[in-house]
Amino acid sequence: MAVLLAAVGLYGSTAAVAAAPLTVAQAVATQNGSSATVRGYVVGQPTATTTVIRSGYPNDYALALADSASTTSTSSMVYVQIPSSFRAAWGLRSNPSLLGRQIDVTGSLSAYFSHPGLTSSTAFAFAGTTPTSTTTAPPTTTTTGSSTCESYYTAACGKSGAALKSALNGIVRTQTKLNYDQVWDALKVTDQDPGNASNVKLLYSGLSLPKSANGGGADQWNREHVWAKSHGDFGTATGPGTDIHHLRPEDVSVNAARGNLDFDNGGSAVSQGGGSLADGDSFEPRAAVKGDVARMIFYMAVRYEGNDGYVNLEINNSVSNGSQPYIGKLSVLKQWSAGDPPDAFEKRRNDLIFSNYQHNRNPFIDHPEWVAAIWP
């Protein structure tokens, strides 16, 4: 359910931290940047200045709190920013049962989504219990799906740059490997059309084709290597050639039109490409999957570092990489990732690969902010 509000004015003075938790009404009226603990009921997730939703949560980034669990007026809510280290335990996408629970959150009384808020949060707890701070692990969750920095990504916590890239490589290279025939069956599950369980959704074209229409003929779908297999010459042997984090169903003709082109903006419309463009040296996928493509490329560059018998794959800013183990264009891929954040289809796919097939994850779907942390 979406509810609307008018923004509330902010206060400019600095106040001392209250000894007891503030009510939400007090927090709304004390937006002065001071640190405080606020107690309130979780009433949804803010997704914009004037919108709070109570189902279909897109991510774990924010909470809306109110003094009553039945509150629907957002003028009586405070918006809580959830730092990455708390998202798996306190975000509604991973923990929808939090809706209606009373919790205590410590943070800065500052606007969030241009609305009275609590930002840079440092502790979360159910009301009346010991808070979870940034120096201790958040409570565990039995919800499957989104991985947490505190469990799957423990070795990567607090790192950036080359250290983060190395840590993530150490995590995601532990995987179950498929052969190329097994990829067919896996893609029929990971890329199932949400609107038709008998079909798969094609990456570049956006078309929906029967799962049974896989092959090499006209109007069939085949296995597209998003990191073109000739960029490093790894072929279809078990390893990078069969890693379904970057293998996607695609129309045979559109797959051929992409070929081994690097990624960049511009070009002419690709026939049946759903808005995708191509020219002599680059390919631009349709807008709805630009971020998906970028995050698959970032995954490959982290997973394959040349330290376990496979080729070392790297991203550069070129569109003339040929058979070298490089792909571009880094600056454009970063823009695509930022402009098209992970959606429900991409997250579900990541979860299925982790739980049913390779048992590793794409870190940039779980933590899109790590793109800039590694490639500033």
UniProtKB/TrEMBL annotation:
Q: Which Pfam families match?
A: DUF6359, Endonuclease_1
> Which first-to-last residue range defines the signal peptide?
1-18
Q: Where is the Endonuclease YhcR N-terminal domain?
A: 22-126
The record lists the lineage as:
Bacteria, Bacillati, Actinomycetota, Actinomycetes, Pseudonocardiales
- Kindly provide the name given to this protein in its UniProt entry: Endonuclease YhcR N-terminal domain-containing protein
Task: Give the organism, scientific name.
Answer: Lentzea pudingi
Keywords on record: Hydrolase, Nuclease, Signal
Q: Which InterPro entries match?
A: Endonuclease-I, His-Me_finger_sf, YhcR_N
> Can you tell me where the transmembrane regions are?
none
Q: Which domain of life is it from?
A: Bacteria
